[in-house]
Design a protein that fits this description.
about 170 residues, single chain, 7 helices
Length: about 170
């Protein structure tokens, strides 16, 4: 199977397309937020040190949960359930920031971003594993590469849009 045939097969695969769209949205959003978080927090008078703490908590919680979910995926092979958890959890926890940011309280926003990190960061390993499952026999390098490339582009465009809004 050639490269163009493989790519064509991917975009005809309904399950891959659902995963592709969800991954693009979440990964792009994660990338965009990382680039413009200071613009959002500046409005509520957070200091640079507060932003650093919030981002550190976000990353550490997400990395820890990625390992935890990785163990569960190895043991139970529950890719779709894990992906649903990530998608729903990301929407809910990101929505909480609309409540947490205006408080100006670093601990409140750090707790919210901890939950957001737990939900959104495992999107990458879960989606890569699920992509390999739903896109078989297309090589993983195509299915994952297309998802990652388009998500980076979406994140860049979303970041520009969010910067303009701020």
């Amino acid at each position: 199977m050639g490269m163009f045939e493989s790519i064509q097969k991917l975009f005809k695969n309904r399950n891959y397309m659902y995963l592709f769209l969800a991954f693009n949205f979440l990964y792009g959003l994660q990338s965009a937020i990382a680039g413009v978080i200071s613009s959002f927090t500046e409005l509520y008078h957070y200091k640079s040190s507060d932003i650093s703490i919030i981002c550190m908590v976000f990353m550490l919680a997400g990395i820890f949960n990625s390992f935890f979910i990785g163990v569960l995926l190895d043991k139970y092979q529950c890719y779709k359930k894990a992906h649903m958890f990530v998608c729903i959890g990301s929407v809910v926890t990101l929505s909480l920031s609309a409540v947490g940011l205006p408080t100006g309280n670093t601990l409140v926003e750090a707790a919210i971003m901890m939950l957001t990190g737990v939900a959104i960061i495992p999107n990458t390993p879960i989606s890569f594993s699920l992509a390999a499952e739903v896109s078989h026999p297309v090589p993983e390098s195509y299915s994952i590469g297309i998802m990652l490339c388009s998500a980076q582009l979406f994140g860049f465009i979303l970041g520009l849009g969010l910067s303009a809004i701020c």
